[in-house]
Protein backbone atom coordinates (compact mmCIF):
# COMPACT_ATOMS: atom_id res chain seq x y z
CA UNK A 1 0.00 0.00 0.00
CA UNK A 2 1.38 3.37 -0.98
CA UNK A 3 1.51 6.02 1.75
CA UNK A 4 -0.36 9.17 0.80
CA UNK A 5 1.36 12.53 1.26
CA UNK A 6 0.64 15.86 -0.36
CA UNK A 7 4.33 16.48 -0.95
CA UNK A 8 7.33 14.13 -1.10
CA UNK A 9 10.80 15.69 -1.00
CA UNK A 10 13.54 13.41 -2.35
CA UNK A 11 16.88 14.15 -0.74
CA UNK A 12 17.63 15.32 2.80
CA UNK A 13 20.75 17.36 2.13
CA UNK A 14 20.85 21.11 2.64
CA UNK A 15 18.34 21.80 -0.18
CA UNK A 16 15.84 19.22 1.07
CA UNK A 17 16.09 20.58 4.63
CA UNK A 18 15.61 24.17 3.46
CA UNK A 19 12.49 23.06 1.58
CA UNK A 20 11.37 21.22 4.73
CA UNK A 21 11.69 24.36 6.82
CA UNK A 22 9.41 26.34 4.49
CA UNK A 23 6.98 23.42 4.13
CA UNK A 24 6.66 23.26 7.93
CA UNK A 25 5.97 26.98 8.11
CA UNK A 26 3.35 26.62 5.39
CA UNK A 27 1.74 23.74 7.39
CA UNK A 28 2.08 21.32 4.48
CA UNK A 29 1.68 17.56 4.69
CA UNK A 30 5.09 16.23 3.58
CA UNK A 31 7.89 13.75 4.08
CA UNK A 32 11.59 13.93 3.16
CA UNK A 33 13.08 10.68 1.83
CA UNK A 34 16.86 10.43 2.02
CA UNK A 35 19.18 7.56 1.29
CA UNK A 36 22.05 8.79 3.45
CA UNK A 37 22.93 6.76 6.54
CA UNK A 38 22.74 9.93 8.60
CA UNK A 39 22.13 13.66 8.14
CA UNK A 40 24.46 15.88 6.09
CA UNK A 41 23.83 15.00 2.43
CA UNK A 42 26.96 15.35 0.29
CA UNK A 43 28.92 16.82 3.18
CA UNK A 44 29.16 13.30 4.62
CA UNK A 45 31.41 12.45 1.70
CA UNK A 46 33.65 15.52 1.69
CA UNK A 47 37.36 14.92 2.16
CA UNK A 48 38.82 15.08 5.68
CA UNK A 49 40.35 18.56 5.40
CA UNK A 50 37.45 20.20 3.51
CA UNK A 51 36.50 23.65 4.77
CA UNK A 52 33.86 26.14 3.68
CA UNK A 53 34.78 29.23 1.70
CA UNK A 54 32.79 31.46 4.02
CA UNK A 55 32.24 32.07 7.71
CA UNK A 56 29.34 30.36 9.48
CA UNK A 57 27.12 33.44 9.20
CA UNK A 58 27.31 33.18 5.41
CA UNK A 59 26.64 29.46 5.32
CA UNK A 60 23.25 29.14 6.95
CA UNK A 61 19.89 27.65 6.13
CA UNK A 62 16.64 29.53 6.81
CA UNK A 63 15.61 30.10 10.40
CA UNK A 64 18.78 29.29 12.29
CA UNK A 65 22.34 30.47 11.71
CA UNK A 66 25.15 27.96 11.71
CA UNK A 67 26.87 28.29 15.12
CA UNK A 68 30.38 29.75 15.12
CA UNK A 69 32.87 26.87 15.17
CA UNK A 70 35.01 26.51 18.29
CA UNK A 71 38.21 26.81 16.25
CA UNK A 72 39.87 29.45 14.11
CA UNK A 73 39.06 29.62 10.40
CA UNK A 74 35.97 28.81 8.43
CA UNK A 75 33.70 25.84 9.30
CA UNK A 76 34.98 22.35 8.49
CA UNK A 77 33.11 19.50 6.81
CA UNK A 78 32.30 18.11 10.24
CA UNK A 79 30.98 21.48 11.43
CA UNK A 80 28.55 21.50 8.49
CA UNK A 81 27.43 17.92 9.19
CA UNK A 82 26.90 18.80 12.86
CA UNK A 83 24.88 21.87 11.85
CA UNK A 84 22.66 19.97 9.41
CA UNK A 85 22.16 17.22 12.00
CA UNK A 86 21.13 19.75 14.66
CA UNK A 87 18.98 21.67 12.16
CA UNK A 88 16.97 18.58 11.31
CA UNK A 89 16.45 17.78 15.00
CA UNK A 90 15.70 21.37 16.02
CA UNK A 91 12.72 21.58 13.66
CA UNK A 92 11.81 17.87 13.92
CA UNK A 93 11.83 17.66 10.16
CA UNK A 94 10.09 14.48 8.96
CA UNK A 95 13.10 12.82 7.34
CA UNK A 96 12.98 9.09 6.65
CA UNK A 97 16.31 7.37 6.00
CA UNK A 98 17.84 5.39 4.61
CA UNK A 99 15.25 5.30 1.83
CA UNK A 100 16.43 5.12 -1.78
CA UNK A 101 13.89 6.36 -4.30
CA UNK A 102 14.20 4.22 -7.38
CA UNK A 103 11.54 5.56 -9.74
CA UNK A 104 8.78 8.11 -10.02
CA UNK A 105 5.87 7.51 -12.35
CA UNK A 106 2.51 9.05 -13.15
CA UNK A 107 -0.27 7.33 -11.22
CA UNK A 108 -3.68 6.86 -12.82
CA UNK A 109 -5.37 9.11 -10.25
CA UNK A 110 -3.34 12.13 -11.32
CA UNK A 111 -0.72 11.91 -8.59
CA UNK A 112 2.93 10.88 -8.75
CA UNK A 113 3.93 7.42 -7.57
CA UNK A 114 7.26 7.42 -5.71
CA UNK A 115 8.78 3.95 -5.43
CA UNK A 116 11.66 3.20 -3.10
CA UNK A 117 13.48 0.26 -1.54
CA UNK A 118 11.35 0.85 1.58
CA UNK A 119 7.85 1.19 0.21
CA UNK A 120 6.05 3.65 -1.98
CA UNK A 121 4.28 6.97 -1.70
CA UNK A 122 1.53 8.72 -3.65
CA UNK A 123 2.00 12.46 -3.78
CA UNK A 124 0.40 15.41 -5.50
CA UNK A 125 3.80 17.10 -5.66
CA UNK A 126 7.39 15.88 -5.66
CA UNK A 127 10.39 18.10 -4.94
CA UNK A 128 13.62 16.57 -6.23
CA UNK A 129 16.60 17.70 -4.12
CA UNK A 130 18.94 14.81 -4.84
CA UNK A 131 22.10 16.89 -5.37
CA UNK A 132 25.02 15.95 -7.58
CA UNK A 133 27.37 13.87 -5.44
CA UNK A 134 26.09 10.57 -6.83
CA UNK A 135 26.89 11.62 -10.38
CA UNK A 136 30.59 12.51 -10.63
CA UNK A 137 31.76 13.56 -14.09
CA UNK A 138 35.00 12.40 -15.75
CA UNK A 139 35.78 13.64 -19.27
CA UNK A 140 36.32 11.15 -22.08
CA UNK A 141 40.08 10.80 -22.63
CA UNK A 142 41.51 8.35 -25.18
CA UNK A 143 42.99 5.31 -23.48
CA UNK A 144 41.39 5.93 -20.09
CA UNK A 145 40.25 2.32 -19.72
CA UNK A 146 43.77 1.03 -20.36
CA UNK A 147 45.36 2.95 -17.46
CA UNK A 148 46.74 0.52 -14.91
CA UNK A 149 47.09 2.91 -11.97
CA UNK A 150 44.53 4.21 -9.49
CA UNK A 151 41.78 6.54 -10.71
CA UNK A 152 39.70 8.40 -8.18
CA UNK A 153 37.10 11.15 -8.51
CA UNK A 154 37.20 13.95 -5.95
CA UNK A 155 33.79 12.63 -4.82
CA UNK A 156 35.66 9.71 -3.24
CA UNK A 157 38.90 11.42 -2.20
CA UNK A 158 39.39 11.28 1.58
CA UNK A 159 42.99 12.29 2.30
CA UNK A 160 46.49 12.14 0.82
CA UNK A 161 47.58 9.37 3.22
CA UNK A 162 47.63 6.55 0.66
CA UNK A 163 49.46 8.64 -1.95
CA UNK A 164 52.73 9.33 -0.12
CA UNK A 165 55.74 9.11 -2.43
CA UNK A 166 53.66 8.40 -5.53
CA UNK A 167 53.48 10.13 -8.93
CA UNK A 168 50.05 11.74 -8.89
CA UNK A 169 48.12 13.84 -11.41
CA UNK A 170 45.35 16.05 -10.05
CA UNK A 171 43.09 17.02 -12.96
CA UNK A 172 40.77 20.02 -12.82
CA UNK A 173 41.19 23.77 -12.58
CA UNK A 174 38.50 24.52 -10.01
CA UNK A 175 38.57 24.78 -6.26
CA UNK A 176 38.54 21.03 -5.66
CA UNK A 177 41.53 20.57 -7.94
CA UNK A 178 43.45 23.41 -6.30
CA UNK A 179 42.73 22.21 -2.76
CA UNK A 180 43.41 18.54 -3.39
CA UNK A 181 46.60 19.26 -5.33
CA UNK A 182 47.77 21.56 -2.52
CA UNK A 183 47.26 18.76 -0.01
CA UNK A 184 48.66 15.91 -2.13
CA UNK A 185 51.75 17.94 -3.08
CA UNK A 186 52.81 17.87 0.58
CA UNK A 187 53.39 14.09 0.47
CA UNK A 188 53.60 13.06 -3.20
CA UNK A 189 55.04 14.13 -6.53
CA UNK A 190 51.81 15.85 -7.55
CA UNK A 191 51.26 17.56 -10.92
CA UNK A 192 48.26 19.82 -11.33
CA UNK A 193 46.65 19.47 -14.76
CA UNK A 194 44.14 22.03 -16.00
CA UNK A 195 42.44 22.56 -19.34
CA UNK A 196 42.96 26.33 -19.18
CA UNK A 197 45.26 28.31 -16.88
CA UNK A 198 43.57 28.59 -13.45
CA UNK A 199 42.32 32.00 -12.33
CA UNK A 200 43.08 32.87 -8.71
CA UNK A 201 41.12 35.35 -6.65
CA UNK A 202 42.96 37.90 -4.53
CA UNK A 203 43.93 36.55 -1.09
CA UNK A 204 41.33 38.69 0.68
CA UNK A 205 38.37 37.53 -1.43
CA UNK A 206 36.47 34.64 0.12
CA UNK A 207 33.06 33.06 -0.39
CA UNK A 208 31.39 35.96 1.40
CA UNK A 209 32.67 38.56 -1.05
CA UNK A 210 31.97 36.24 -3.98
CA UNK A 211 28.40 35.72 -2.89
CA UNK A 212 27.77 39.43 -2.45
CA UNK A 213 29.29 40.29 -5.80
CA UNK A 214 27.52 37.44 -7.58
CA UNK A 215 24.22 38.56 -6.02
CA UNK A 216 24.78 42.11 -7.26
CA UNK A 217 25.65 40.75 -10.69
CA UNK A 218 22.54 38.57 -10.68
CA UNK A 219 20.38 41.57 -9.84
CA UNK A 220 21.97 43.49 -12.68
CA UNK A 221 23.68 46.11 -10.52
CA UNK A 222 27.19 44.68 -10.35
CA UNK A 223 29.87 47.30 -10.13
CA UNK A 224 32.96 45.20 -9.63
CA UNK A 225 33.48 41.77 -11.10
CA UNK A 226 36.48 40.08 -9.48
CA UNK A 227 39.43 39.35 -11.74
CA UNK A 228 38.81 35.93 -13.27
CA UNK A 229 35.05 36.11 -12.84
CA UNK A 230 32.98 34.38 -10.19
CA UNK A 231 34.04 30.79 -10.55
CA UNK A 232 37.69 31.31 -9.69
CA UNK A 233 39.87 29.76 -7.09
CA UNK A 234 39.53 30.95 -3.53
CA UNK A 235 42.90 31.26 -1.81
CA UNK A 236 42.11 29.20 1.27
CA UNK A 237 45.14 28.71 3.57
CA UNK A 238 46.33 25.34 2.11
CA UNK A 239 46.21 26.76 -1.44
CA UNK A 240 48.07 29.92 -0.34
CA UNK A 241 50.64 27.71 1.34
CA UNK A 242 51.12 25.67 -1.87
CA UNK A 243 51.61 28.89 -3.82
CA UNK A 244 54.13 30.20 -1.28
CA UNK A 245 56.21 27.03 -1.52
CA UNK A 246 56.11 27.24 -5.35
CA UNK A 247 53.87 24.20 -5.80
CA UNK A 248 50.82 25.80 -7.43
CA UNK A 249 51.87 25.86 -11.10
CA UNK A 250 49.66 23.89 -13.48
CA UNK A 251 50.31 22.19 -16.81
CA UNK A 252 47.95 21.76 -19.79
CA UNK A 253 45.90 18.60 -20.22
CA UNK A 254 47.54 15.37 -21.40
CA UNK A 255 46.42 13.96 -24.74
CA UNK A 256 45.92 10.31 -23.91
CA UNK A 257 46.32 7.71 -21.21
CA UNK A 258 48.31 4.49 -21.40
CA UNK A 259 48.80 1.46 -19.19
CA UNK A 260 51.66 3.17 -17.33
CA UNK A 261 50.64 6.81 -17.38
CA UNK A 262 49.92 9.62 -19.81
CA UNK A 263 51.21 11.21 -23.02
CA UNK A 264 51.61 14.98 -22.95
CA UNK A 265 50.80 17.23 -25.95
CA UNK A 266 54.51 17.41 -26.90
CA UNK A 267 54.70 13.61 -27.11
CA UNK A 268 56.56 13.03 -23.83
CA UNK A 269 55.39 10.07 -21.77
CA UNK A 270 55.04 10.20 -18.00
CA UNK A 271 54.71 7.33 -15.60
CA UNK A 272 51.79 7.89 -13.23
CA UNK A 273 50.61 5.96 -10.15
CA UNK A 274 47.32 7.73 -9.50
CA UNK A 275 45.00 10.26 -11.15
CA UNK A 276 42.51 12.25 -9.13
CA UNK A 277 39.70 13.65 -11.29
CA UNK A 278 38.45 16.96 -9.89
CA UNK A 279 36.25 17.45 -12.90
CA UNK A 280 32.90 18.19 -11.36
CA UNK A 281 29.48 16.63 -11.10
CA UNK A 282 26.19 16.43 -12.95
CA UNK A 283 22.74 16.40 -11.36
CA UNK A 284 21.82 12.98 -9.90
CA UNK A 285 18.45 12.50 -11.56
CA UNK A 286 18.25 8.74 -12.23
CA UNK A 287 15.07 8.41 -10.23
CA UNK A 288 13.31 10.77 -12.68
CA UNK A 289 13.98 8.58 -15.72
CA UNK A 290 10.43 7.20 -15.73
CA UNK A 291 9.00 10.71 -16.13
CA UNK A 292 11.09 11.39 -19.24
CA UNK A 293 11.82 14.96 -18.25
CA UNK A 294 15.64 14.88 -18.21
CA UNK A 295 17.17 16.42 -21.35
CA UNK A 296 20.33 15.31 -23.15
CA UNK A 297 22.23 17.94 -21.18
CA UNK A 298 21.33 16.03 -18.00
CA UNK A 299 19.06 18.83 -16.78
CA UNK A 300 15.30 19.33 -16.52
CA UNK A 301 13.74 22.42 -18.09
CA UNK A 302 12.25 24.40 -15.18
CA UNK A 303 10.60 27.76 -14.70
CA UNK A 304 11.94 30.48 -12.41
CA UNK A 305 10.31 28.83 -9.37
CA UNK A 306 11.77 25.40 -10.09
CA UNK A 307 8.70 23.73 -11.61
CA UNK A 308 9.44 21.21 -14.37
CA UNK A 309 7.90 22.56 -17.56
CA UNK A 310 7.01 19.08 -18.82
CA UNK A 311 5.61 17.87 -15.47
CA UNK A 312 4.00 20.52 -13.25
CA UNK A 313 3.82 18.16 -10.25
CA UNK A 314 7.62 17.96 -10.19
CA UNK A 315 9.92 20.66 -8.79
CA UNK A 316 13.72 20.75 -8.70
CA UNK A 317 15.83 22.40 -6.05
CA UNK A 318 19.50 22.90 -5.28
CA UNK A 319 21.33 21.66 -8.37
CA UNK A 320 23.00 24.88 -9.48
CA UNK A 321 22.08 28.16 -11.10
CA UNK A 322 19.74 26.40 -13.53
CA UNK A 323 17.45 25.66 -10.55
CA UNK A 324 17.82 29.11 -9.01
CA UNK A 325 20.68 31.50 -8.48
CA UNK A 326 23.29 30.09 -6.05
CA UNK A 327 20.86 27.31 -5.13
CA UNK A 328 23.72 24.80 -4.70
CA UNK A 329 25.13 26.76 -1.76
CA UNK A 330 24.12 26.71 1.89
CA UNK A 331 23.26 30.39 1.87
CA UNK A 332 21.55 30.33 -1.55
CA UNK A 333 19.36 27.23 -1.33
CA UNK A 334 17.04 28.82 1.25
CA UNK A 335 16.05 31.67 -1.04
CA UNK A 336 15.04 29.29 -3.81
CA UNK A 337 13.33 26.91 -1.37
CA UNK A 338 11.16 29.84 -0.21
CA UNK A 339 10.08 30.61 -3.79
CA UNK A 340 9.44 26.95 -4.60
CA UNK A 341 7.36 26.26 -1.47
CA UNK A 342 5.45 29.51 -1.83
CA UNK A 343 4.48 28.54 -5.38
CA UNK A 344 3.56 24.97 -4.41
CA UNK A 345 1.47 26.09 -1.43
CA UNK A 346 -0.33 28.62 -3.61
P1 LIG B 1 23.24 16.86 -1.36
O1 LIG B 1 23.97 17.47 -0.23
O2 LIG B 1 23.97 15.94 -2.28
O3 LIG B 1 21.99 16.09 -0.75
C1 LIG B 1 21.18 15.25 -1.55
C2 LIG B 1 20.70 14.10 -0.70
O4 LIG B 1 19.79 13.34 -1.49
C3 LIG B 1 21.81 13.16 -0.27
O5 LIG B 1 21.67 12.82 1.09
C4 LIG B 1 21.60 11.94 -1.16
O6 LIG B 1 22.03 10.75 -0.54
C5 LIG B 1 20.10 11.97 -1.35
N1 LIG B 1 19.62 11.28 -2.54
C6 LIG B 1 20.10 11.36 -3.80
N2 LIG B 1 19.39 10.57 -4.62
C7 LIG B 1 18.44 9.98 -3.85
C8 LIG B 1 17.41 9.03 -4.12
N3 LIG B 1 17.20 8.54 -5.34
N4 LIG B 1 16.63 8.62 -3.08
C9 LIG B 1 16.81 9.11 -1.83
N5 LIG B 1 17.78 10.01 -1.53
C10 LIG B 1 18.58 10.42 -2.53
N6 LIG B 1 28.58 24.96 -0.62
C11 LIG B 1 28.57 26.06 0.16
O7 LIG B 1 27.50 26.62 0.41
N7 LIG B 1 29.72 26.58 0.68
C12 LIG B 1 30.93 26.00 0.43
O8 LIG B 1 31.96 26.50 0.91
C13 LIG B 1 30.98 24.83 -0.38
N8 LIG B 1 32.15 24.21 -0.63
C14 LIG B 1 32.13 23.11 -1.42
C15 LIG B 1 33.34 22.47 -1.68
C16 LIG B 1 33.38 21.35 -2.47
C17 LIG B 1 34.70 20.70 -2.78
C18 LIG B 1 32.19 20.81 -3.00
C19 LIG B 1 32.22 19.57 -3.87
C20 LIG B 1 30.99 21.43 -2.74
C21 LIG B 1 30.95 22.58 -1.96
N9 LIG B 1 29.75 23.23 -1.69
C22 LIG B 1 29.75 24.34 -0.91
C23 LIG B 1 28.51 22.77 -2.32
C24 LIG B 1 27.75 21.80 -1.50
O9 LIG B 1 28.52 20.81 -0.88
C25 LIG B 1 26.75 21.05 -2.37
O10 LIG B 1 26.35 21.87 -3.40
C26 LIG B 1 25.57 20.68 -1.53
O11 LIG B 1 25.90 19.61 -0.69
C27 LIG B 1 24.36 20.33 -2.36
O12 LIG B 1 23.27 20.16 -1.47
P2 LIG B 1 21.98 19.38 -1.92
O13 LIG B 1 21.09 19.32 -0.75
O14 LIG B 1 21.46 19.94 -3.17
O15 LIG B 1 22.55 17.93 -2.30
How would you sum up this structure, described in words?
This protein has 2 domains: 3-134 and 282-345, FAD/NAD(P)-binding domain; 144-198 and 233-277, FAD/NAD(P)-binding domain, CATH 3.50.50.60. The longest helix is centred in the last third of the chain and has 16 residues, at 330-345. The chain has helices spanning 14-25, 77-90, 175-184, 207-218, 237-244, 330-345, and strands at residues 3-10, 30-33, 95-96, 101-106, 112-116, 119-128, 150-153, 167-171, 189-194, 250-252, 256-257, 261-263, 269-271, 274-277, 307-308, 311-316. The strands form 3 sheets. Strands 1, 2, 3, 4, 5, 6, 15 and 16 form an 8-stranded mixed β-sheet that branches. Strands 7-14-8-9-10 form a 5-stranded parallel β-sheet, covered by helices on one side. 21% of the residues lie in helices and 21% in strands. With 346 residues, it is of the alpha/beta class. Flavin-adenine dinucleotide binds next to α1.
What is the general shape?
globular
- Decide which structural class fits the backbone: alpha/beta
CATH fold group of the largest domain: FAD/NAD(P)-binding domain
Uncertain spans: none
Number of contiguous helices: 6
Total tally of structural domains: 2
Q: Name the hetero compounds present.
A: flavin-adenine dinucleotide
Note the beta-strand portion: 15-25%
Provide the CATH superfamily of the largest domain: FAD/NAD(P)-binding domain
The span between the termini is 29 Å
Radius of gyration: 21 Å
Largest sheet: 8 strands, mixed
Q: State the CATH class of the largest domain.
A: Alpha Beta
Instruction: Summarize the amount of helix as a percent range.
Output: 10-25%
> Overall mean pLDDT score?
94
Amino acid sequence: MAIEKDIVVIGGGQAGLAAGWYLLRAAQDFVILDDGHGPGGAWRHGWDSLRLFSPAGYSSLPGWQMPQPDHAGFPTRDDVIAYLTAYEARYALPVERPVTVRTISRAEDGRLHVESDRGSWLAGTVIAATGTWRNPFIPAIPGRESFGGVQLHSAHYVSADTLAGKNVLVVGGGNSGAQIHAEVSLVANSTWVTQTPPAFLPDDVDGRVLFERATAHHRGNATDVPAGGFGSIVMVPPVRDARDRGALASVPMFERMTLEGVIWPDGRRASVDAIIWCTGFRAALDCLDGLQVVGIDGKVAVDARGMALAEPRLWLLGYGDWTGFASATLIGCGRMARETVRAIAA
